[in-house]
Amino acid sequence: MTARLGPAIALAGGLGLALAASASDARFDALGDLPSGIFSSVASAVSADGSVVVGRGEAILGERAWSRAWRWTREDGMVDLGDLEGGLPASLAHDVSADGLTVVGSFRSGSGPKAFVWNARRGMQSVRARLAEAPGLDLSGWTLSRTVAVSDDGRTLAGTGTNPEGRTEAWLAVLPGPR
Predict the structure, then answer these.
(1) Model confidence over 144-153: pLDDT tens digits?
(2) Could you give the CA distance from residue 67 to residue 87 in angstroms, rounded to a whole number?
C-alpha cells in the first residue's frame, strides 16, 4: 500500500532519519510480511536512497514460527534472506549498505548467535567464514555474535562478540576481496 502525503517532514521512527519531503516525493509504503508468516514484520534499516529496507519477520517453518531476516524492494517485495548450514532457521537483519546490496545481522546456531553478511551473489555467510578467506587473519578464540552495522560501501562491518578471554567486546572487520 502506498499513500501520498502533502508537504511534510517524513520521520522514519527508530531509524534515526529525518528527511525533508516535498508534496511530489512524500510517500508511505506498507511493506507487508514474509510468505507463510504470522504477519509480523519489523524494519531495522534503510539504504541511502530509500529503495531497500531490511528487518525481520516471522515465518512458519515446520511446527513453529521463526524470526527471519528479510530484504524489501518495491520490485521484489519482502524476500527471506535464507539460512546458514548448521544453524537454526532464525535470523535478524540489523543494517544495510548505502546501495542496498549488502545486509548484515545475526542468526541462531546451536551454540548461540552468530554474525552474518548477505549479498545477492554470495547469499548469507557467517562473517567468520568470510574473514577466513583472508590469508593470515587470526580469529582464534573469537566468537562473532552479531553484525550490527555496515559501511556505505558494504565492506566494513562492526559488531559484538566474545573475545579469547571470554569477555564481550565490540569488533570492526574489513571483508576481503570483492563483495
Answers:
(1) 999 999 999 9
(2) 13
- Is 179 a domain residue? no
Query: In the chain, which ranges are continuous DSSP H helix?
Result: 127-131
Beta strands in 110-142 (DSSP E): 112-119, 123-126
Enter the C-alpha cell of residue 74.
Answer: 518495491
Print the domain residue range for 169: 37-174
* Lateral strand order in the sheet of 52-61: 37-46, 52-61, 64-73, 77-80
Q: What are the tens digits of pLDDT across the range 92-135?
A: 999 999 999 999 999 988 788 999 999 999 999 999 999 999 98
Residues 64 and 109 in one domain: yes
| Residues 104 and 18 grouped into a single domain | no
Q: What count of other Cβ atoms lies within 10 Å of the Cβ of residue 44?
A: 20
- Domain presence at residue 115: yes
